[in-house]
Design a protein that fits this description.
Blueprint lengths: L5 H9 L9 H10 L1 E5 L4 E3 L7 E7 L2 E4 L6 E3 L4 E2 L1 H6 L6 E4 L3 E7 H10 L1 H19 L3 H8 L1
Antiparallel strand pairs: 1-8, 2-7, 3-6, 3-8, 4-5, 4-7
Helix pairs in contact: 1-2
């Protein structure tokens, strides 16, 4: 997998909300450990139950998160996934399928943990997103609540 070119990396990463709070020096660190990977439309980026060894940030294209329960979730440029499996050291909790060609920044397990330890703004952004996802997962749509009350 090719490494990110320094100029390309910094301009691309600046536009990703996850990295908005990072300084140029911190962005350089992310760019140094990140790799670009292309996934063709229809390709499985990750599979439910597989070991989680990589964190992904979508730079271009779209993907669909398909869980065992709940509605599929569409991912757009700037969205990320794979952090739960790395944080918990657990298998993947969903399939993620490229709906069109996807270019992703990938960060391996060891580099991801180093970023969490050394970059407070990165860690805060990850935690904020994870908590938001948990809150959204716990909220049932209104029609589901209405059916439960009957």
């Amino acid at each position: 997998m090719p490494t990110l070119e320094r100029t390309e990396a910094l301009s691309t990463l600046k536009g990703v909300p996850l990295f908005a709070g990072l300084t140029p020096q911190q962005l350089r660190r992310v760019a140094e450990v990140g790799r670009l990977k292309l996934f063709r439309a229809g390709a499985a980026i990750v599979r439910l139950g597989e070991p989680g060894d990589t964190f992904y940030v979508i730079l271009d294209g779209h993907a669909l998160v398909v869980r065992e329960a709940g509605r599929p979730l569409k991912l757009h440029p700037g969205d990320f996934f794979g952090e739960l499996a790395l944080i918990e050291n657990a298998p993947r909790s969903a399939d993620v399928i490229a709906t069109d060609d996807v270019t992703a920044l990938t960060v391996g397990h060891t580099a991801f943990r180093k970023l969490l330890r050394s970059e407070a703004a990165f860690t805060h952004a990850i935690l904020k997103t994870v908590v938001g996802r948990m809150r959204n997962d716990q909220r049932a749509p209104r029609w589901e609540l209405d059916n439960l009350m009957r």
